[in-house]
Amino acid sequence: MSNIFDISCGQFYYLIMAVIAELGALVRRRRADMGLTQATVAALSGLSRATVNKLENGAVETDLSLNRAARLAEALGLSLTIAPPEEATAGKSPALDIAARTASVSYRVAMQPTQLRRMLKTGEVSPAFLPHVNAVLDEAPVSLLAQVVEQLHVEEGLERPWIWKQMRVLARQVKSSRSLWQ
Fold it and tell me: N or C, fewer C-beta in 10 Å, the chain?
C-alpha cells in the first residue's frame, strides 16, 4: 500500500488539485441544494464571493488553505474528513434522532424523530413544538441539518433542494434569526 510520502511533487500537485476540484463540486451542489447564493455562502464562511466562485468553477489556485476550506465546508454543513465513508458513519445514531433529542433538551415534552420528520415533510409545525423546531433550525450545527436532509433523501426519496426549502419555510414560521435562513 502506498502512502502520501511515496509520490513525487508533481503527483502531489495533481492530487491536491483533484481534492480542490472535488471540494468545489461539493460546495456548488450543496449551495444549490440549500438555495443559497455565492454571496451568502461567502458571508457565512468569511470568504470572498470571488473565492467561492473560483472554487466552484475549478479556477482556484492551490493557495486555498485548509483553514479557509474548512470554514467554507462548515458553513455548508460539509466536513473535511479523511476516512473511508463506512468509518465516518459507523455507530452513529440517525440524524433525525439526534436533531429531535437536541431540540428537546430544554423542554419538558420531548419531540420525537417521527414528529420532526412529519413537520419537515409537511411544512406544518405543531404549536407545541414551535420552540423545538426553532431550536433545531437556530442552533443545530449545519452539518447535523445536512445529515437530516441526507437521511430524508435516502429514506423518503425526497429531493435535497426541496428539503432545504422546507427548512427555510419552517424557519420563517418559527421566526428563526439564523442568517442561514435569511
Answer: N
Domain range annotation of the chain:
4-82, 89-181
Which architecture does CATH list for 4-82? Orthogonal Bundle (1.10)
* pTM for the full predicted model: 0.71
Contact 45, 37 (CB under 8 A): no
